[in-house]
Amino acid sequence: MTKREIVLKIADETDLKQVHVSKIIQLFLDTLVEALSKGDKIELRNFGVFKTKVRKAKKGRNPRTNEAVPVPERRVVVFRSGLVMKQKIK
Predict the structure, then answer these.
(1) Would you write out the chain's pLDDT as a tens digit for each of its 90 residues?
(2) Domain segments of the chain: what residues?
(3) Radius of gyration from C-alpha coordinates of the chain
(4) Coil, strand, or helix at residue 67?
């Protein structure tokens, strides 16, 4: 499902204009990205938790040359689904 499909579904169910729904969804996503970039944890009850964690530096391998390549430490986003989502996806 794309962002566009979500906008259409919400606009249809709420009788709001697609432009307004699109702005709200984009603002929501921008807020999530901004909070995660600061290192904040985002908890949406019954949906899940977004947070960042640091992956340690490691040595990778170039598959073409079989040469060792250093992979630096970096932050990644982690998502843990909530209880309601887990129950519905079973």
Answers:
(1) 999 999 999 999 999 999 999 999 999 999 999 999 999 999 999 899 999 999 999 999 999 999 999 999 999 999 999 999 999 998
(2) 1-40, 41-90
(3) 19
(4) coil
Task: Fill in the amino acid letter for 7.
Answer: V
Q: What is the pTM of this model?
A: 0.78
Fold assignment, 41-90: HU Protein; Chain A (4.10.520)
Q: Nearest 5°: CA angle at 45, between 41 and 48?
A: 60
Distance (Å, rounded) from C-alpha 27 to C-alpha 50? 17
- Give the Cα separation of 57 and 54 in Å (integer): 9
Q: Which two tokens stand for residue 48?
A: 């899940």
Residue recorded with tokens 């490691």:
58
* Residue with tokens 């702005």, as numbered in its chain: 23
